[in-house]
Amino acid sequence: MSATTLHAVNLTPGQTIKLESSSLPGGVLILQASAPLFRQAAGTTDTILSSDNLSGVQYNNASPITVTVPARLGIFSCTISQFTAAQVTLNGGPGVTINGLSSVTLAADQYTSGLLTATAPYIFTFNVVYHA
Question: How many CA atoms lie within 13 A of 69 on its CB side?
Answer without folding.
Answer: 34
